Model the fold of this input.
Amino acid sequence: DGGITQSPKYLFRKEGQNVTLSCEQNLNHDAMYWYRQDPGQGLRLIYYSQIVNDFQKGDIAEGYSVSREKKESFPLTVTSAQKNPTAFYLCASIVGGSGNTIYFGEGSWLTVV
Amino acid sequence: KQEVTQIPAALSVPEGENLVLNCSFTDSAIYNLQWFRQDPGKGLTSLLLIQSSQREQTSGRLNASLDKSSGRSTLYIAASQPGDSATYLCAVHKGFQKLVFGTGTRLLVSP
Done:
């Protein structure tokens, strides 16, 4: 079945560590996104990519990095510079244009220990 | 800056009631508006997408309306069921492939 796969589902990070969240889609979608969701809040955009080898910062990009080497993959690295990384992270994709439905993965929980 | 607000933040109703969830946005220059459902600890599932040129969309017991001039959208759920219990979020597409989300309405439907 087509969809978006995020892994791991749960991840624990020690202070000062970088961690990478995986996002893979087999929908042949052009654009991919990373959002952060904090309890009781809406989603905030971290990074997005419209095509391979290109990506743009969202509203809260500081302390995060991404790459888009393949159309189907858009990994997110949470660096040690991100001071409050504990959150629920959601990856999404869309086929192209703003008139289409956006699809989400099941999310990854990141906790700092 | 586009801001999206959802009222109420939480809603509890008995099974069988019809209910309305509200979404308002500050900038009417949007491409479209989308309603999502989110179950606890899960990703978002798209419910309805309303293009900026449309007034409403329907899917089963769900009906979403859009009034761009007033910056408002409503999601109407008919004959609510316990399985409808979830958080409902609206999002506006503003700019190429960028969405701005509301904070959601947490719905509980009691048997």
User: Anything to note?
Assistant: The first strand of chain B starts at residue 4 and ends at 7. Chain B has a mean pLDDT of 92. The radius of gyration of chain B is 13 Å. The interface with chain A takes residues 4, 31-32, 34, 36, 41-46, 49, 51, 89, 91, 93, 95-99, 101-104 of chain B (CB under 8 Å).
